[in-house]
Amino acid sequence: MSFFLESLAAGLKASLLSLGKIALILIPLFLGLELAKELGWLGRVSSGLAGTLRRVGLPERVALPLATGTIIGFTYGAGVILKAIQEEGWTRREMMLLWVFLGLSHALIEDTAIFAALGIPVPAALAVRLVPALAATWIMSLWLRRREKARPLY
Amino acid sequence: MQTERLLGAVRKGFKDALSVLWLLTKVMVPVTIAVTFLDRSGVLPYLAGVFAPGMAWLGLPGEAAVALVVGNLSSMYAGVGAMAALELTAKQRVILGAMIMLSHSLPQEGAIVARAGGQAAVVVGVRLLTAGVTGLMLNLLL
Hints:
The structure holds 2 protein chains of 2 kinds. Chain A has one domain (26-150). Helices cover 83% and strands 0% of the residues of chain A. Chain A is built from 7 helices and no strands. Chain B is mainly alpha-helical. Chain B has one domain. The longest helix of chain B has 39 residues, at 2-40. In chain B, helix 3 packs antiparallel against helix 4 and helix 6 (106-115) crosses helix 7. Chain B contains 7 helices and no strands. At the A-B interface, helix 1, helix 4, helix 5, helix 6 and helix 7 of A face helix 1, helix 4, helix 5, helix 6 and helix 7 of B.
């Protein structure tokens, strides 16, 4: 019985301690994020992003949905993407690259806050996610281009 | 007018943060307790021994396999919960954190990709591969 209670207490303590640290970071971050959205800063981030996107093979028009998904989150980003696809008619290549990047790298604010609370420095948490995500998207774009050359679409 | 909009934004931000925290609490507390039980009852040490050779490639202890498995199959929050119950060095935290951040909640997020018109199998495959390669590289570089 004491084994049971002691494990319960230890698990509860470890999880609540982590949650407390996460709350301290997450609440101010979410407040800032909502304010930034309200003040229209997301558009500015997305135009700043466009240059980097071109370099990894993503067209500029994916910038806003991508910035939304990257900063805010997967589900919200998916909604914005679905709307953009219906309005603009994206190519398969654009969708594939966007989803590869977004699958690897989304909800950066929330996720980074959580792992920062677990003891990973913020710059490291961002770097170990963004660098592999950009590299994988770039490799995917090269591969897709090679495949298109081998089997051209008429 | 402007102040009202900004106040609304602050209220929404606070509400969103609390709902994420509640979600996190619901998953993290039971998972952390479960992993603590597994650890103290000797099940986790046994599993760790099984996974240790593979995990050594990533510079991680065998126990970390549990965080990777629940993080990928269940949700990222479950992976975080399992991670909170483990004792890790700074380097191991960065490696495990990177792998969980890159690849997690695959059933749920795969479904979202499929619903929004993406190829879920490709995205899931690329995520697992990227997480694995990143783990290997970080172990060598850090």
